[in-house]
Amino acid sequence: MSEQNQTSLFAKILNWTAIALLVYLVLVAVGTVSGGFKLASGGTEGAKEIFAFATNPFVALMLGAFATALVQSSSTVTSVIVGLVAGGLPLGIAIPMIMGANIGTTITNTLVSIGHIRDKEEFQRAFAASTVHDFFNLFAVAIFLPLEIMFGLLEKFSAALSHLFVGDADLSLKSYNFIKPLVKPAVGLVKDAVSFLDGKAVGVAMVVIGIAMILFAVTTLGKLLKKALVGRAKELLHSAIGRGPVAGISSGAVVTVMVQSSSTTTSLMIPLAGSGVFNTRQIYPFTLGANIGTTITALLAATSITGPNAEVALTIALVHVMFNVFAVALIYGLPLLREIPLQLAEKLARIGTRNKSAAFGYVLGSFFVLPGLLMLAIK
Distances in Å between the alpha carbon of 27 and those of 129, 159, 248? Predict the structure, then answer.
């Protein structure tokens, strides 16, 4: 083996070792947020008091969208939500937050499309390809949030599934949880490091540290996975788009799991749309697959939660999965509904091409100004 090949092999081993350590850090971080939130809030009742302002599901929805738009990572926000739920955050508040995270995550590829703004034709194609994701997620929330408020469909279905895995059924995996002994010592170290603080301040510090760890770990993990797999991801993207909706959705999910970032997956497609290699209709199903693939992070985060709150943590992670799967099945599965996000995206792209300020106004208004104003107004 040549020296160059040895160096390349060593770099790959180092990269994958770092990826494994960052996955572990995500688990520790979620456990830290959960433990800290329990200490700071005093458990479930305390959590209800803290989030009393968000008992309105629309406030919770906007909070999720706003937070995700700020950090530009639904993986980060959903991981934090899993930790908060394990610490006592009610599911009735967490579920709209999860839906909001779906909306907020689309800002990244929309910003990427702005990079094509100098060329009108390119910008129109790129902007349409990016905003079809926005409109699909908004449409999904418009359908499923009222259903959730009225009937609790996602919560009930996900709770039944999570009970199967961590409940007292025969198929329970509770006794096989190997994550707890791996994560507990590290969470204990974080707690010990802030033990000089008084009372609930220990819990607050743990939550802050945990969120910072999640931000760092998820961001760095995405970069390392992109470095390790983005070449293959691009190959998969090119080979899948245009081969039909099932191939597009499946490969979108696989690529997103590979790079641990729906923002990366969808952003890869925008230059292809802008250059005219693929049109919005071809890219559309791939985007939906990215929605499904990004839910793996919350599921991973849920595995770090043990004890009596393990089931509810897995429930909120499964809500994220089911929401996206059901939305794709319903909206994309029905031809009449399937066309609505496409038509809206193409119409907005035409408006944005004629009036650039409208495009910028859409980005700022939809992801920052409107959620902020609605939260203030409803509060």
Answer: 34, 22, 30
Cβ contact 294:68 at 8 Å:
no
Q: For residue 340, is it within any domain?
A: yes
Give a yes or no: residue 146 inside a domain: yes
Q: How many CB atoms lie within 10 A of CB 39?
A: 21
- Measured in whole angstroms, how far is the alpha carbon of residue 334 from the centre of its chain? 25
Domain assignment of residue 248, yes or no? yes
Domain count, the chain: 1
pLDDT in tens, 211-241: 888 778 867 876 776 676 555 655 666 666 6
Give the structural domain span for 231. Answer: 13-378
pLDDT band at 334 (very low <50, low <70, confident <90, very high): very high
Tell me the range of 29-43, 200-214, 239-253 where mean pLDDT is highest: 200-214
Q: What's the whole-model pTM score?
A: 0.78
What size, in residues, is the chain? 379
User: How big is the CA angle at 181 (ends 180 and 182), to the nearest 5 degrees?
Assistant: 90
CA distances from 86 to 22, 315, 344 (A): 21, 10, 38
Q: How far is CA 334 from CA 123, 134, 244, 330, 340, in A?
A: 29, 18, 15, 6, 11
Determine the angle formed by the axes of helices 74-86 and 262-274, rounding to 10 degrees: 160
Going by C-beta distance under 8 Å and a sequence separation of 6 or more, which residues neighbour residue 26? Answer: 79, 213, 214, 217, 218, 221, 297, 300, 301, 304
Nearest in space to 36 (alpha carbons), one of 189, 240, 207 = 207
Q: Give the up-direction half-sphere exposure of residue 122: CA atoms within 13 A in the CB hemisphere.
A: 14
Q: What is the pLDDT of residues 76-132, one digit of tens each?
A: 788 888 888 888 888 998 999 999 999 988 887 888 788 788 888 989 999 999 999
Whether residue 269 contacts residue 287, with contact meaning beta carbons closer than 8 Å, is answered with yes
> What are the pLDDT digits (tens) for 338-348?
999 999 999 99
Give the other-Cβ count within 10 Å of 13's Cβ.
Answer: 10
Our CA dihedral for 198, 191, 188, 173, rounded to 10 degrees, sits at 100
In a domain, 208, yes or no: yes
Identify the pLDDT of residue 97: 92
Helix, strand, coil percent values for the chain (each to nearest 5): 85, 0, 15
The pLDDT value recorded for residue 14 is 86
